[in-house]
Design goal:
Order of helices and strands: HHHEHEHEHEHHEHEHHEHHHHHHHHH
Number of helices: 20
Distance between the termini: 29 Å
CATH architecture of the largest domain: 3-Layer(aba) Sandwich
Helix content: 40-55%
């Protein structure tokens, strides 16, 4: 039947099955992470172990254990377990499942668990077809999704299911999983004679960002690279180093190569001339590239990038000029487009310079992650959609417009990045004024610490309606809204 199949098409121990699938645990003792849900006395574990399942949605990031938990349910429940492919199955397939479930229930009293992985891929018609069977208890729905269920599932369906949020795995959780895979001779890599450096495992755990699938997939590839390069026999010991781990994670580079090195060298010279404040050199290299037949849109893009990267907030007008030049290129075409390009290049060359924004975003990118301690704080989360209150979103948010000067001390960074400073404005051009403003605000911090801390501790949302309105506006701009 279309859309049906076991959790594993092949035997889980088969080498052709990815390591992450082979290493799925057989019981809760082997499950790593999600202690709040699956600890010994946790509610979800108790439901599964007592075989008293109700319809539920497991939602959370990829590689956090949702599908793994489904495999544990399949192994432990006395109910018939049916898996449906959310991409391939249609309404007719759902109806066949319901009919078979009814026959089984009448004949033996046995229930049916319907597992739908990536349930957010079901369209409205499929969700509507699923709803009556869930509501009447004809099947027990076990759905998993990486999306917020309030966004992607219908309100009636969500209201009839229990929701369980899965969190990203910690680095220590990932290292436990990798160590286990390295030593498991039946399903893992234990028979390959590998000895992994602690540094390599720590690197993979950090780069995997809480995703067990990525961690184990990277480990498997790194092991293959290690064995391919060592020439060691299975009985010998090969060292898996951080170099193997880095090679396994390396992304395939994409290089735009229009006319070879000369093209990139000229582009580099143009950028460095604008950065270095030499308008004559900027015009020379711009003219040389135009004469060589360079795509003017490429030139416009480089100028826009330079405006943000090298001038930044020292002269915010630079980005406006550069963007206008890029628009003029599309409007005019060559040869007239050479004039706004030249205007923008000269403006950038003569403008005061600051790379504080550029450095700030790169520093933030290095620090930003999706692991534990880096989730969006509850008081900053979206409050515009139904069910937000059930998830505790927006509690304790302080609406800045309700405070003097339109500003109030409030925590905006997640706990894992608390106290970080990414933007350090220079003393050049308009950025000197920005620097003065931030310094004045820092002084206000020190004078109002006690007062604002006391206010924040009340947990009062001073403007829930305004926060909801702003969130709803942002969602409309993204093309979101109610499912």
């Amino acid at each position: 039947m279309k859309g049906f199949g076991p959790l594993f098409e092949e035997q889980p121990s088969s080498p052709s099955v990815p390591l992450a699938a082979r290493m799925r645990p057989h019981d809760f003792e082997g499950f790593v992470g999600q202690d709040k849900l699956l600890g010994k006395e946790a509610p979800l574990r108790r439901l599964i172990e007592s075989d008293t399942l109700t319809s539920m949605i497991l939602f959370g990031p990829p590689g956090s254990g949702k599908t793994t938990l489904a495999s544990l349910v399949e192994q432990s429940t006395s109910a018939r377990f049916v898996r449906l492919n959310a991409v391939l199955a249609g309404v007719a397939d759902l109806r066949r499942v319901f009919e078979e479930a009814d026959r089984l229930r009448k004949a033996s009293g046995r229930r049916t668990v319907l597992f739908v992985d990536e349930i957010h891929r079901f369209n409205k018609g499929q969700q509507d077809a699923l709803l009556p069977a869930v509501e009447e208890g004809r099947v027990i729905l076990l759905g998993t999704t990486t999306e917020n269920p309030f966004f992607v599932l219908s309100s009636p369906l969500v209201s009839r299911c229990r929701l369980f949020r899965f969190e990203l795995l910690s680095r220590s959780d990932l290292q436990v999983l990798m160590e286990r895979a390295l030593h498991d001779t039946e399903r893992g890599l234990g028979g390959l004679g590998l000895q992994a450096d602690e540094e390599a495992l720590a690197f993979i755990a950090g780069e995997a960002a809480g995703d067990a699938r990525i961690a184990l997939g990277t480990l498997e590839l790194a092991a293959q690279l290690c064995l391919d390069g060592s020439g060691a026999e299975p009985a010998e010991v090969s060292r898996l180093t951080i170099s193997h781990a880095m090679a396994a994670l390396q992304e395939r580079a994409f290089r735009y190569d229009r006319d070879g090195d000369a093209h990139y060298d000229a582009a580099s010279a143009l950028i460095k001339s604008m950065r270095g404040g030499d308008p004559d050199a900027a015009l020379y290299w711009l003219a040389r590239m135009i004469k060589g037949g360079e795509d003017p849109r490429f030139l416009a893009r480089r100028i826009v990038i330079a405006a943000a990267e090298d001038v930044g907030n020292a002269d915010p007008q630079a980005l406006v000029v550069a963007t206008a030049a890029a628009h003029a290129v599309e409007l005019l075409g060559m040869p007239e487009a050479r004039i706004p390009l030249a205007q923008a290049a000269v403006y950038l060359a003569c403008a005061p310079k600051s790379n504080a924004v550029y450095r700030g975003i790169d520093k933030a990118l290095s620090a930003a992650g999706t692991g534990p301690g880096e989730e969006v704080p509850a008081h900053l989360r979206d409050t515009s959609y139904r069910g937000a209150a059930r998830l505790g979103h927006g509690e304790g948010y302080l609406y800045p417009h309700d405070f003097e000067g339109g500003w109030v001390k409030q925590v905006y960074l997640p706990p894992g990045a608390a106290g970080s400073t990414f933007y350090a404005p220079s003393d050049r051009g308009f950025e000197a004024e920005i620097r003065r403003r931030l310094a004045a605000r820092a002084k206000t911090h020190s004078r109002t610490d006690t007062h604002t801390d006391t206010h924040a501790d009340t947990g009062t949302d001073t403007c829930t309606a305004a926060g909801t309105s702003a969130d709803a506006g942002a969602r409309e701009e993204k093309g979101g809204g109610s499912p």
